[in-house]
Design brief:
35% of the residues lie in helices and 19% in strands. By secondary structure, it is an alpha/beta fold. A six-stranded mixed β-sheet has the order 5-4-1-2-3-6. This is 3'-5' exonuclease.
């Protein structure tokens, strides 16, 4: 029962990813060939491998993380706050900082991570990029050999599915139907690569990522039939 989980023990998160290089031409010949093979089914005959490269950020083998935003509740008596912070910039530093956060502050059995579609995307992506960058995976992300019910993470998409595994609901749709303030600003996920490589506006991406993290927390509150956060309760640190 999610109502019994202590909110103070949950780390909410969201990541933003982009293609590892600004354009397809920067890949070496072998990686170009591997990308063409990897995406053959998704592209069909509609796109060339080069035209499809703007979607490389969704694969950990061809993408990289440019921002991880996290949020956590601090509840003392009647005072409830939700603190949000982000790791951004160099990917290795992002991963090491996030690793340190988990190892130092979210390393107990009762600690859990929570994101939207995080079990399928965010968490595996982070773990794979840690391996690629030769960073030790923290216990909370080391899921080898664990059964699905042994994995210490929450997923608002999974909670909303209620066992209907063919069903997908976007974060934007779920916030709308649950009456949660929309997390989206002036960009969406498909534009993150352009904002990163062309506009070079990481602050805009961080704001977008933090809004998603807050939205995940809001959905979790709604699933527990608790009051949504108001602006005064949200603290950016």
């Amino acid at each position: 029962m999610i109502e019994k989980i202590n909110l103070n023990n949950i780390l909410f998160l969201d990541i933003e990813t982009v293609a590892e290089t600004a354009d397809f031409g920067e890949l070496d010949d072998e990686m170009k060939e591997l990308w063409e093979h990897k995406t053959q089914y998704q592209r069909k005959e509609d796109f060339t491998a080069e035209e499809f490269y703007d979607r490389a950020g969704i694969w950990a083998e061809f993408g990289k993380i440019v921002c991880i935003s996290v949020g956590y509740f601090t509840i003392k008596g009647d005072v409830r706050n939700f603190r949000v912070t982000s790791f951004f910039g160099d990917e290795v530093k992002i991963l090491k900082d996030f690793n340190n956060l988990l190892n130092n502050h979210y390393n107990k059995p009762y600690h859990v991570l929570c994101g939207h579609n995080a079990k399928e995307f965010d968490i595996p992506f982070i773990a794979r990029r840690m391996i690629i960058n030769q960073i030790a995976i923290p216990d909370k992300l080391n899921l080898f050999g664990k059964k699905p019910w042994e994995i210490p993470h929450l997923d608002t998409l999974e909670l909303w599915k209620f066992g209907d595994y063919k069903h997908f609901t976007s974060l934007k749709l779920l916030t709308k139907i649950l009456g949660v303030p929309s997390p989206k600003g002036d960009i969406d996920g498909s534009q993150v690569g352009h904002v990163f490589y062309v506009e070079k506006d990481i602050d805009r991406i961080v704001t977008y990522c933090e809004k998603d993290t807050i939205a995940v927390a809001q959905i979790f509150l709604r699933l527990r039939r608790e009051d949504l956060l108001i602006d005064d309760e949200i603290i950016h640190v």
